[in-house]
Fold these 4 entries.
Entry 1:
Amino acid sequence: MSRYRFFLAMLLVIGIALCGCTSSSSSGSEKKPTSEENIKIAINENNTSTEIKDSGNLSFADQIKNIQDSIDKQPPINLKIGSTTDIILKENPTTGYSWNASVTSGLEIVNDSFNPPANRLMGAGGEHQWTIRGTAVGNQIFSAVYRRPWEAPSPDDITYVQHFLVTA
């Protein structure tokens, strides 16, 4: 089942890449993540995908907020003990930003990897992928923060949270 989810997520990522993305340029000396660099795809418990497309001039932070608002309206993803699921988030570490993920004690991260873009263009973003396994029954949480690790945490940091219900 996990392979099917990963395959479906990859097809959606490729489809989005073929459609292209746009973003508006921002002023200021510090480059913030743009919608061009980050699009999120989530797979829900019914094995259907929620595709989040570039929203025109919305910043990456606003796009993630919209994604999180949508996720918050859904029930937790059901995951059986020993089963795995993948979470894939766009990431561009060349900007200094990266996802820092953590899980509650009933989940285990069994894969934490960055997949560079197929075109290998300098400065292009890729995808960060985590494979999560359920290890204890109950409500569990995967959370990630998109920030520069050398900077102090800030209330403006971009966060992503996914709830799971792990069952026997």
Entry 2:
Amino acid sequence: MSTKGDSLKLLKLTLNYTNSKFWYLLLVSLIPSVSIAFVVSPYSSLDFLCTYFSQNVSSFSVIYKSILGIKTSTFWIGIIGVVLVPIAFSILIGTVERHMRMGEFTLGVSRLRVRINYNFLTSLKFLLVLLLIFQIGKFLQGIMFFAFAKFFTETVAFVFSIVWYILIFILEWFVLSLIILWMPTMLQTGLSSTKAFGLSVRQVMRHVLSIMLTMLVPTLPMVLFMIANALLGLKIGLILDSIILSITFVYYIVLMYSVFYDVNGIEREDLKKVDIWKKSF
């Protein structure tokens, strides 16, 4: 299948799923996402570029602090998010995986402890890797933003910074696509982190571009909203950050398992019209 055809297939599978179950899953991710938004902005680098000509670019530390987007005044609220995000992730992946595997969608309290016990450590490991990826990206952005500001005129430095931001964005999206099967491979096969990583990368390699394109669908509107917020001074960054994080968590997890089932050729029970859990008389 072509990259375009593969992307459309993955997009259809993901959107069809989120269309029917999106709001239920969003409720699980909402509180952790709001908590995280109080401490850090996922699009702080974009805010920096939108207000570039009024930014202090005199040192790397100043630039780095700005693009990290850490909100020190409400930092304590983020502690709640740090605890809740891996818990919410555990619940979400357990819910989506069971629905696709068995055709049963449930967020009942009775299954919460099982999902947290089984998925928490793997979710935490995966989230720490995601955090590391984005922190490396921020560091690379900051050091080059400073270099451009130091050696070029303000306008040229601004243009180069935009180009560099796009390149880092593409690199991060590539890595996120490359590791998308790592967590479900660990959970479904019981392999160690290293072996699961090697297997998942081999499986997903030829689908990376398709996955990247599929991930851009919800991302581009979010980017446009954040640009509008920064340029127009709307002061709704906290609301947008919360919405962006909530949608991203849900979309990425659904895409993750859509790719996993598709690549491994596993039949999905949630796509069947017949509910195997309903009794027939």
Entry 3:
Amino acid sequence: MKRTRRNHRATFKAQVALAAVKGDKTLAELAEHFQVHPTQITDWKQQLLAGAADVFGGTKPPADPRISRPSTPRLANWPWRMIFSRGAHQGGLAERKAMIDRTHQLPVRRQCQLLKLARSTAYYHPTPVSETALALMRRIDELHLAHPFAGARMLRDLLRQEGQTIGRRHVATLMRRMGIEALYRKPHLSRRHPAHQVYPYLLRDLKISRPNRVWAADITYIPLARGFVYLFAVLDWASRRVLAWRLSNTLTTDFCLEAVRDALAHDGTPDIFNTDQGCQFTSQEFTGLLMHHGIQISMDGKGCWRDNVFVERLWKSIKYEEVYLHAYDTVSAAHQGLERYLTFYNQTRPHQALDGQTPDQVYYDNLTTRLTAA
């Protein structure tokens, strides 16, 4: 049966993007509900957040007169060919797919050719993440915590030992979706993303004995019954106190920025802020926020998980002591469970590395001592 072509109106895109920003459903649940691909949802959410300022007095760039609809019946006139060809070289797959206009006189087949897209891509209908895939992703997450050096091949072999029939490429695909990779030092470490500056690691041999000397942050994967979300947390290095955290159904920068702003508003300003080299942390928005507050930026060596070891230990505690025990059904349940656990983690849970004290005790006692001395 021939598939019906779909042309998403602006109101529909806004509805989907707002649902994604609301954050009470996973990306898989939103994709199934609205019958659109998760990549499109992420793209529309980013467009909504990027253009939100225009609603409150921002200015939009003037429209390009070449992008007006042609008045002649010719379908392959040169301006449209130029515009689509440029799009094919400038945008990613999701961006190029979003350029397809099903109401335009130029046939979808020809638009796909100019955008260098497979025609099947234009008619693809997303399917929800299967229960089998979600179970595999959760098990991969558990194995990754236990063996952070394991790559797709080793994880495949570990899964096969447990009776799972799976290939290396499938494991690698699921790892990319989860945002995890084997943690080991790789060759060509000096290569940098051409658009994002990467900063040196500043914590080597540095004595960190007081709160707000160094903050660290990272993102981890949280499995749910139907999909997954991402957890971002800001940690004070000396006291192990979690200063702020956020959940998101998309792996974007906005929820990281929100958590950092929250920590800065309530807990002061650190001397150094340490992260890995993820694109969320090397983005101009993230580094610009830190530089605006006069904070030195430190980044782990690529693949060097030990450079941010305290955050890795936090993830292990959260998952083994909370997430895996409760198997959240919804985003709301995950938020409630993590809020309950992180309150316990900060205020009640004794830490052996802190001589049996809690992170709150170490954090606030040291702040009080410094203020008294001053």
Entry 4:
Amino acid sequence: MPKMNDRERLAKLAADQHKLAQEAASVRRALREHYGTLTADIAVEELSEREFRELLTQAIRIGGSQAVSTLRAFSPVPAPSKDPPERRPSDEHGGAARRRPAPSPGAASPGDGASQ
């Protein structure tokens, strides 16, 4: 096989570079589609599109593992319960239980045997 001159080598390298760039774009597109399908199982509707983009952009910018460890440092906020709140007897009549006024000091209570 005859030795290639510099011009031929350069043309071959450019063609190889173009082929590799196309392959990288194809793999990148497939990976992004795969990650996009993962969001179907995540409750992203709780975020606005702007918040979602900002969250992903910042996480990618600082690195996935650093972003995850930073977010895990925050205490989780309890999710709102779908079940109605537990009813207490005091809630039956729309508020706190009514209390009887405190007896005045020295007053006899009904069960102590004192006459009224």
